[in-house]
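Re: that chain you flagged

S.,

Sorry for the slow reply, it's been a week of failed gels. I finally had a moment to sit down with the sequence you sent. For the record, here it is as I used it:
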Amino acid sequence: MRILLDKFSKSFGSTKVIEDMNLEVASGEMLALLGPSGCGKSTTLFAVCGIHRPTSGRILFGDRDVTNLPSQERNVGVVFQSYALYPHMTVEENIGFPLMVKRAAAPDIKKQVAAIAALVHIDNLLDRRPSQLSGGQQQRVALARALIRRPDVLLLDEPLANLDAKLRLEMRSEIRRLQRETGITAILVTHDQVEAMSMCDRIAIMKSGEIVQIATPSAMYNDPRTSFVAGFLGNPPISFIKGTAFQGAFVSGDGHLKVPLAALSGISDDTPLTLGVRPEHFGTGGDIAVEGRIVFAETQGRENLYDVALPDGSVLRSIQPVRNDIKPGDQVRWMLGSDAAFIFAENGQRL
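Prediction finished late last night. Pasting the structure tokens below so you have them in one place:
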């Protein structure tokens, strides 16, 4: 089921949250709305499910205009951060509740509950109550309850926020598996870029009620339009260094770092710039030598993360295989890959 937001706007009183947003989610696609708190991603999701009514614009499911339809007439499944399970009901009753509301026959409800419970791997928990379940099990119950009604659209609002790191990893792959097996169109709201990149076909990064960029995870990571997008994606995060243009190169504030870049051809000298370098592009490979002092080292299992302070106080991050020949305080001369560096104008737009 295709979802289309056509010039969608939403205000609360005199406060404009979103204005003239255009967004299309293809049938069978899983799209992430990613951004910081207050950017409008949950407001968008709530408008799609019918909790919020648009101030202006349209929302279409396929060719059907659902802008003014209540939630119960949109055939949407929603999974919230809090799971919202009924504590007095068993798992079986929680999952089957949407069908009970529709007054489906008891044998049919039991059959469908068994099938969906098996799909989300909780068919051995049907007699338990929510208080007897782990966070991951409760999340699976909430997913099963959303899917049993066979919705046209599945909406996920920060569904993994309450889980520990191991369960988040497990549920990321589980939700993606379910979405692919059912072929349902899904929208995920999250502020976690790892969730967005690992679970979704495309990401829409939002800032201040606007979509800044929409692309596949790999395209957005490798080709960000702005410094905001570049900084929001990547773990460990990208490093930024302030400087200016000089004869087709980026030059840091103290002049110690000079990086020739084709993108700066024709850019006037002394134009303020920001250089962006991802940790994997600074270390043992590259074409620009950079001298600095290691001020931080963190072991991450197979890899080590290093922060290298440059003479002007700027810091470059480097992610490398574990090595025992360097430690904080050491002076290093590592290489930066200029072909993988990003350059941004003063307004944050990529050049």
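What I noticed first: The longest helix spans residues 165-182.

Talk soon,
D.
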